[in-house]
Amino acid sequence: MSRKRILSGMRPTGRLHLGNLHGALKNWVELQDSGNYECFYFVADWHALTSDYASTEQIRSYTLDMIVDWLSVGLDPEKSTIFIQSRVKEHAELFLLLSMITPISWLERNPAYKEMRAELTDRDLSTFGFLGYPVLQAADIIMYKAYGVPVGVDQLPHVELTREIARRFNFLYGGEVFPIPEALLTTVPKVLGIDGRKMSKSYENAIYLRDRGADLKKKVESMFTDPQRMTKKDPGRPELCNVFTFHGIYSPEQDVKEIETECRRAGIGCVECKRRLADRIIDGLRPIHERQDHYLGHMDEVRGIIEEGSSRAAAVARATMEEAREAVKI
Ligand code: TRP
Ligand code: SF4
């Protein structure tokens, strides 16, 4: 029996951080290693253009950095197809076909669209491309007839729209060209930024996969803790402390238990607690950093992986487009 196919992508809008690692990438790697799925993972560089069309200088370097980091966290080109969206021109063609059948009202009422427009006030997002963001995403997904799309909650509206667009295509052109994909919701530990807000590049509160040694330590030292714990003598509340959440991810269970007890009885201070965490994170990221060093020193290998993945993806995309054109009779 053939394995079910899953697909997911990320926009190359900056360096990857621990939020991306724990919120998405670990899950991607697990799905890959389970052996139950045929995985397609791609860099959505055209999607980056929808909001960053006026400043494109970094898109290429972010794309390469992103793939280096994907490989470093354990995505394996022997098991997964790793590619770049703009290398597979069929995405643009399917986007065009889908744009013919997608009612504008579906796009305008999309909550992700409304939120983004309200948030990104420093640029003009009244463009056709930005409104069409989910149509391009739908093309990405159904191109590979993906059964599942591993995403976080923020992407649910996009997957829902994809389902509606796929159904509409099938309805208008007969038959079952496109299976209706499912969102595979990732439930993850909530890792916050060093200031306690959602970890995000724009908040400047992120710990990056490229951060190391002294830089990393400094960030961990500046992490917010239980806000009511003013001095070492005050008992702390680990359940309200982001440092503690990180210990839960990076420290052995025994230590986590000890920190919990000691924090509550004011037996350990935050400075010491963070020092221990920094060491744990450094240890935890070591294998990732070692692979990063390898790939950064062998960029030809990375380019080869992208080449190979993109041509594998393109072969699937070409076959799908033949069916799609046939259905549309164009
Ligand atoms: N919109 C996604 C994000 O911002 C990126 C993306 C583009 C995507 N195409 C996709 C995710 C297809 C899953 C499937 O994270
Ligand atoms: Fe948080 Fe650790 Fe300080 Fe407790 S001791 S409040 S867990 S940083």
Q: Can you characterise this structure?
A:
A 3-stranded parallel sheet has the order 1-2-3. A two-stranded parallel ribbon has the order 4-5. It is 56% helix and 8% strand. It has 330 residues and is mostly helical. The longest helix is centred in the C-terminal third of the chain and has 30 residues, at 299-328. Helix 1 (18-33) links the parallel strand 1 and strand 2. Helix 4 packs parallel to helix 14, helix 8 (133-143) packs across helix 9 and helix 10 (213-221) packs antiparallel against helix 13 (270-296). Tryptophan (TRP) is lined by residues 7-11, 44, 47, 137, 140-141, 149, 151, 155, 158. Residues 7-11, 44, 47, 137, 140-141, 149, 151, 155, 158 line the site of tryptophan.
